[in-house]
Design brief:
single chain, Rossmann fold, three-stranded mixed sheet, 6 strands
Length: 171
């Protein structure tokens, strides 16, 4: 969803085309040409698509990975140029296939995380109605944060968005 939001912000976006393992689209963010990739595989196999991009000549440090994060409160955004996986299976798959954790990422908070024995089911459950009410704002903010990261650079985007948190949702 955040990638679709980013696509809507790009200038001259050409639309989505099917590609091996997902869809691709291209547009402009400021003076930069941006290629968006939406993997259509299980999240814990995201590394396969990442590896294919590397085989095409892409550089891991220039691919912004957008993912959910149960260890951040709903609506919090964190942009990093590199880092650990914190047990996130999608990030683990990418790090394994890339052979490095040195790739930028935008983590979108969907927490708070439940106890570890409930975590697997939690990530597959639908959002509560109170959470669904704020999701459009979360997705909009994530799309703008991703745009800022590719148009203005990671440092500027980190300075702007790493402090961003929506008003907390009461359980």
């Amino acid at each position: 969803m955040a990638v679709d939001q980013l696509a809507g912000r790009l200038g001259r976006f050409r639309g989505w085309a099917k590609d091996a393992g997902g869809s691709r689209g291209e547009g402009r963010a400021g003076r930069h040409v941006v290629t968006l990739v939406k993997p259509e595989r299980y999240m814990n196999r995201s590394g396969e698509v990442f590896r294919a991009l590397l085989a095409e000549g892409w550089v891991a440090g220039e691919i912004l990975v957008v993912c959910d994060e149960v260890y951040l409160p709903l609506g919090a955004l964190r942009i990093r140029s590199r880092g650990g996986t914190a047990g996130h299976q999608g990030l683990e798959s990418i790090a394994k296939e890339a052979g490095t954790e040195a790739f930028p990422r935008l983590r979108i908070g969907v927490g708070p995380a439940p106890s570890s024995d409930r975590l697997k089911n939690y990530v597959l459950e639908p959002f509560l109605s109170e959470e669904q009410a704020v999701l459009p704002r979360v997705i909009e903010a994530a799309g703008q944060a991703a745009y800022d990261a590719v148009a203005d650079g990671l440092t500027q985007a980190m300075n702007r968005w790493n402090r961003f948190v929506l008003d907390p949702v009461e359980p």
